[in-house]
Design brief:
Elements: E1 3-7, E2 25-34, H1 37-42, E3 44-47, E4 56-63, H2 69-77, E5 84-87, H3 98-104, E6 110-113, H4 126-144, E7 150-151, H5 165-177, E8 181-182, H6 185-188, E9 203-205, H7 214-227, H8 229-235, E10 238-241, H9 251-262, E11 268-270, H10 273-285, E12 287-293, E13 296-304, H11 306-309, E14 315-320, E15 324-329, E16 332-333, E17 337-339, E18 342-347, E19 356-361, E20 369-370, E21 378-384, E22 389-395, E23 403-410, E24 419-423, E25 432-438, E26 453-463, E27 466-476
Parallel strand pairs: 4-5, 4-10, 4-11, 5-6, 7-8, 9-10, 19-27
Antiparallel strand pairs: 1-12, 2-13, 2-15, 3-14, 12-13, 14-18, 15-16, 17-18, 20-21, 21-22, 22-25, 23-24, 23-26, 26-27
Helix pairs in contact: 4-5, 7-8
Length: 477
């Protein structure tokens, strides 16, 4: 008898996958041998809400392109803590550019988006909100060759009581830019413009931006992990501290004491916000199909690619109700960590992150431009709103073919819907392919059409040297 089971594993929130933006998915073949046929039949699998089946994820959030972030970084990593630094555009005059940002990534930390110029979104038109969000992401991905997936709104502003369109524009801007996470839990809660599980968040506790108040900090932490853990877990299984690295003098000593007390909790996963965002989205969107008979079960795990979620984070699968004898993933033996009545499996990521990321601002005349990060690779992005189409042309380098070519069109907020994916056939060396997208209907309200419209194509591919990404942009009146 052949057993076929389809398991859709999600968070506690019911998920309609159709509400989520499209992500490229990969598959893994997992084979588990149980102690007996009966135990195989009794086995139950679920995805852990936190990596490695820990109780909590713990991270940090520090805003703005400011020099004191270097001190904050060094004090955190000394105690094994990780976090994310949310940056605006580089400040080259103060030497806060690419090398400085790379140093902030050391020790497992990461960079997040914080807008280009730090405006109050409540004062902007939708087109400007979208550009602030996506252009900031593109610039730092290009400079650091690292995907960004987490965002912090400047001044914490993403809505206006006098202008409901601000919340809609802020929500759609993050979704269309490919962000998976916001540090503001109020943004995620009861937001009618976000699908279930689309944007993850966390529970923030503040040690003090200038004056460190350790006792108050510990009291707020106790509320989460001791007094009302399940209530806070409904918001998120991630705890993080922040917000600004404005400490000086003796405040660093007090902050060190806070950090030391937070370190080395055996039931916590210490991660960056980007890692948490990637893990949380995998749990929401992954699924598993089981087949087999006797003591052996074979599972097909379908989950987002690492490049789509922005971090190469494993996905934790928990087995209960059965004794596991052995596990293989895609033919390779995987350690099965027995913990009491459970077995914890940390499935390696699917796919790989881009090794290099470039940016090309498409020439206005539509002639293909060459991407500096990928010599010989030429692209153009030509919007034609009057004809209702958007055209991307891609020419492979003369010496190298491109495979696994995928384009994600990210349209201005004037159009709805705004995210579309297309696959190219393998692109032979020196050859050109063109893909054309029929633009959806423009929104009828004039506010969406005001300002410059930002057309973007995210082109992912594999070269002989490994995976790459190029952002192709075009801003039009």
């Amino acid at each position: 008898m052949r057993l076929v089971i389809l398991l859709l594993l999600t968070t506690a929130t019911a998920l309609n996958a159709q509400t989520l933006p499209p992500l490229r998915m990969g598959t893994q073949q997992v084979e588990i041998v149980y102690a007996s046929a009966q135990e195989a039949a009794n086995a139950k699998l679920s995805f852990a809400s936190v990596y490695d089946n820990r109780d909590w994820a713990f991270s940090a959030r520090w805003d703005d392109t400011q020099a004191n972030s270097t001190n904050m970084h060094d004090h955190m990593v000394k105690y094994g803590l990780k976090g994310t630094f949310y940056l605006t555009q580089p400040d080259e005059k103060r030497k806060l550019g690419v090398e400085w940002a790379k140093a902030l990534q050391a020790g497992g930390c990461s960079i997040g988006g914080h807008s280009v110029t730090h405006p109050n979104f409540a004062t902007l038109k939708p087109a400007e909100i979208y550009w602030q969000v996506l252009a900031n992401k593109i610039e730092w991905e290009d400079l650091l060759d690292t995907p960004l997936n987490s965002f912090a709104f400047a001044y914490g502003q993403f809505k206006s009581p006098d202008n409901p369109v601000i919340l809609q524009a802020s929500s759609e801007a993050l979704q269309r830019a490919g962000y998976l996470h916001s540090v503001y839990s109020d943004f995620e809660k009861s937001n009618p413009y976000l699908g279930p599980g689309e944007i993850s968040t966390g529970n923030q506790i503040v040690p003090g931006d200038k004056v460190v108040e350790a006792e108050a900090f510990q009291g707020n932490l106790d509320k989460i992990v001791t007094k009302w853990p399940e209530a806070y877990a409904k918001t998120s299984r991630c705890i993080f501290l922040g917000v600004h690295a404005w400490q000086a003098g003796e405040e660093w000593t007090k902050l060190d004491a806070v950090f030391e007390a937070l370190a080395h909790k055996p039931n916590w996963w210490y991660c960056s916000q980007n890692e948490w965002a990637a893990y949380a989205r995998q749990v929401v969107q992954s699924r598993l199909e089981a087949t087999g008979e006797g003591a052996t079960r074979r599972y097909v795990v379908t989950r987002p690619l690492a490049g789509e979620v922005g971090s190469a984070v494993p996905l934790t699968c928990v087995v209960s109700g059965a004794t596991v004898q052995s596990v293989k993933v895609d033919g390779q033996t995987l350690a099965a960590d027995k913990r009491g009545d459970l077995v914890v499996l940390n499935l390696p990521p699917t796919g790989a992150l881009p090794l290099k990321i470039g940016h090309l601002d498409s020439p206005a005349e539509g002639v293909q431009g060459e991407c500096a990060d990928f010599p010989g690779l030429k692209l153009s992005l030509v919007p034609d709103p009057a004809a209702g189409k958007l055209t991307l042309a891609c020419t492979a380098p003369a010496e190298a073919a491109l495979t696994n070519v995928n384009v994600t069109f990210r349209l201005p907020l004037a159009y709805a819907p705004g995210v579309f994916t297309r696959d190219f056939a393998p692109l032979e060396a020196g050859k050109t392919q063109t893909v054309e997208l029929a633009l959806p209907a423009a929104r009828p309200e004039p506010v969406w059409a005001e300002g410059q419209q930002y057309f973007v194509a995210q082109v992912d591919f594999t070269t002989p040297g490994g995976p790459g990404r190029v952002w192709v942009t075009r801003q039009m009146p």
